[in-house]
Amino acid sequence: xxxxxxxxxxxxxxxxxxxxxxxxxxxxxxxxxxxxxxxxxxxxxxxxxxxxxxxxxxxxxxxxxxxxxxxxxxxxxxxxxxxxxxxxxxxxxxxxxxxxxxxxxxxxxxxxxxxxxxxxxxxxxxxxxxxxxxxxxxxxxxxxxxxxxxxxxxxxxxxxxxxxxxxxxxxxxxxxx
Length: 177
Prior knowledge:
This protein starts with 8 loop residues before the first strand and ends in a 14-residue tail after the last helix. The chain has five helices and five strands; from the N terminus they run E-E-H-E-E-E-H-H-H-H. Strands 2-1-5-3-4 form a five-stranded mixed β-sheet, covered by helices on one side. The longest helix has 15 residues, at 149-163. Helix 2 (95-102) packs across helix 5 and helix 4 (131-138) crosses helix 5 (149-163). With 177 residues, it is an alpha+beta fold.
């Protein structure tokens, strides 16, 4: 990584949700701020700003990361995926998102984006997770509304759908935002 001057602004080029992008930031700018304020990707939420709550979880090169602990200059050349990147196309929800909706796995929705990102990464590695594994994955996220039970059910349902064990919902309203 090149030597950066704290007094200057730097252009950081990376892939965001499959599209090449660049944002100008100060050296100390956090990825949450670059995404939300610099690029308008407001699905990444800022919660505790200490990496504890998990609301800001994104995927960097396929690995979940806390965007509130990541400097924006650190994602130069990386592939970053946010909750907006889970949707297969505008106006449609991804499999996990549909399962969350169907199972009422969100209430206020503040923690949901981060939980979805962690589960998405985990299900890509472990398509047949146990209830215990899902519980451990979401254990790094704070949710004060759902009590976690519907989140676990939604994750298990989405995993089964992704494996092809259960059919995808056929009604258009089940997949449209």
